[in-house]
Design goal:
Blueprint (H helix, E strand, L loop, with lengths): L1 E6 L7 H5 L7 E5 L2 E10 L4 E9 L1 H7 L6 H8 L9 H10 L1 H4 L7 H4 L3 E11 L3 H9 L5 E6 L14 E10 L1 H16 L8 H11 L9 H8 L4 H13 L13 H7 L4 H15 L4 E5 L5 H8 L5 E6 L2 H10 L7 H4 L2 E5 L14 E5 L10 H12 L3 E7 L26 H15 L2 E7 L10 E7 L1
Parallel strand pairs: 8-9, 8-11, 9-10, 11-12
Antiparallel strand pairs: 1-4, 1-5, 2-3, 3-4, 5-7, 6-7, 12-14, 13-14
Helix pairs in contact: 4-8, 8-10, 9-11, 10-11
The structure holds S-adenosyl-L-homocysteine.
The site of S-adenosyl-L-homocysteine has 16 residues, from loops.
Length: 465
């Protein structure tokens, strides 16, 4: 494993002070599974390069993994990429050999350690799980220019495409401490593995190392998940705390449905919609409430705030949305009495689901237009025939209102995933037919400011039996 770090900041040989390793000789360090060597292939006033070479002993690695049981597993301990690929061993070596620099400290050049200087790091063999795009998604938001060359496979296996190893060069004007920290965290993330058991202290390490860049990183979730070896409980705990350190409170986070939200903000439709649904639920005295297609949990959050809603259950087909809801509602840290009131379910509204029985009210806020039209019938049976709460509240866009949205092409939907959008008449016809079929009555209620010509932006149907 070879990592080189180059600067052109003059005098470039100050890199030796920053790393705490002299440019004029080779130094070696014992590691638990091998040795690290530091040397300088070039060292002039104009340009200086430090190299960290890791010499891992495959036999040491096997000894460290002695607990493995099967022969196959043992074989992979002998024959693997660890000695030459960048991995968590690289991070461990950075920490062991360049510990002060990693922490942003330098005894001899403290100011320089805090100064952004032109830096370039090259990893000779970086395993990239997720491809070049993911590699760029990790480093580019942090201000790096990324150069990546994929290593070929043995010519005999060319048909399989390239290998997962890249030669990667990162360039930025930044502090050495930041560069080392980014490598320390992101190299094992790209490799998607760690050579050691990952527990609670790994969460602390990530939060400490990521404090000033991870909360705002667009791929913070994937970084956290992989850094913690995809352990769900640790990942959730870390994400909750990461998000809590953001400057903006969690409530103001941008939603997934940004395009639609941006379009609709003028009328702050979201809030009007939620307020209309909540008012209806209070009106009918519902205590046990289902939120079908709960998404990231906007309605759930409001329901949780009001204790008259004794039982609150959100269901969604998207595990990603449920994960976001889990985070945003901070389910992990809710007091037990609160936690007992809420549950998130993974499921689809087009399949009969026994878990949906026994509720006073069900809401599906901006959900039906996400269903294929030929599935609406299945949806209606699931909700009105099987779940069959006394009250069902549905909201959906009023397609006629779309002409009032600047920037929405004629005939276009408000959101790419919408399968249809109904006029007032179309929704009315469907709502009345559905109510009649399942023994409900329905009231159609406008939501948002009503435009004389095209009606309200959102339409709501309140079904009762
Ligand atoms: N009600 C939320 C989310 C609306 S977006 C809000 O107002 O913010 C529509 C949601 O419906 C998405 O989260 C999507 O995952 C979910 N959805 C789409 N098809 C579904 C299905 N068949 N079953 C359950 N949920 C579904």
């Amino acid at each position: 494993m070879l990592l080189t770090i180059t600067t052109t900041h003059r005098p470039a040989t100050d890199l030796g002070y920053l790393l705490g390793k002299r440019p004029d000789r080779v130094q070696s360090f014992e590691l638990p599974s091998g040795r690290a060597h530091v040397f300088y292939p070039e060292a002039s006033d104009a340009r200086c390069t430090a190299a960290l070479l890791l010499d891992l002993d495959p036999l040491d690695l096997v000894r460290a993994a002695r607990r493995s049981k099967t022969r196959d597993e043992l074989l992979t301990h002998y024959v693997n990429d660890r000695p030459y690929a960048s991995s968590s061993f690289t991070s461990a070596a950075i920490s062991r050999v360049f510990g002060a620099a990693l922490g942003g400290r330098s005894r001899e050049r403290p100011e320089l350690a805090a100064t952004a200087i032109p830096l370039e790091a090259t990893l000779a063999t970086l395993p990239v799980r997720g491809g070049e795009r993911f590699l760029r998604e990790l480093f580019e938001p942090l201000g790096y220019e990324v150069e990546a060359a994929r290593e070929p496979l043995d010519p005999r296996f060319e048909a399989w495409g390239g290998s997962r190893y890249y030669r990667v060069t990162l360039r930025a004007t930044t502090t050495l401490g930041r560069l080392l920290t980014h490598l320390f965290v992101l190299v094992p993330v790209l490799d998607d593995d760690k050579h050691y058991w990952v527990g609670d202290d790994e969460v602390e390490k990530l939060l400490a190392k990521g404090a000033d860049w991870l909360p705002d990183h667009p791929r913070r979730e994937e970084i956290t998940r992989r850094y913690l070896k995809r352990q769900g409980a640790l990942t959730r705990r870390a994400l909750e705390r990461l998000i809590a350190t953001e400057s903006a409170p969690i409530e103001d986070e941008p939603e997934l449905d940004e395009a639609e939200d941006a379009l609709e903000t003028k009328v702050s439709l979201n809030e009007r919609r939620l307020a209309a649904v909540l008012a209806t639920l209070r009106d009918v005295g519902a205590a046990r409430v289902l939120d079908l297609g709960c998404g990231e949990g906007r309605l759930l959050r409001e329901l949780l705030r009001d204790r008259r809603f004794e039982r609150v259950v959100g269901l969604d087909v998207s595990t990603r949305a449920l994960g976001r809801a889990h985070e945003r509602l901070r389910l992990e840290t809710l007091p037990p009495a609160q936690r007992a009131r809420i549950e998130l379910l993974h499921g689809s509204l087009t399949y009969r689901d026994a878990r949906l029985a026994g509720f006073d009210a069900a809401c599906a806020v901006e959900v039906i237009e996400h269903l294929d039209p030929w599935r609406l019938d299945a949806f209606a049976r699931v909700v009105f025939e099987h779940a069959a709460p006394r009250t069902v509240i549905l909201t959906t866009p009023n397609a006629e209102f779309n002409v009032r949205f600047d920037g929405l092409a004629a005939g276009a939907h408000r959101h790419a995933d919408h399968r249809f959008e109904w006029s007032r008449e179309e929704f009315g016809a469907w709502a009345h037919a559905t109510a009649a079929r399942f023994g409900y009555t329905v009231r159609l209620i406008p939501v948002g400011d009503i435009d004389e010509e095209v009606g309200p932006p959102t339409q709501m149907g309140v079904f009762s039996r």
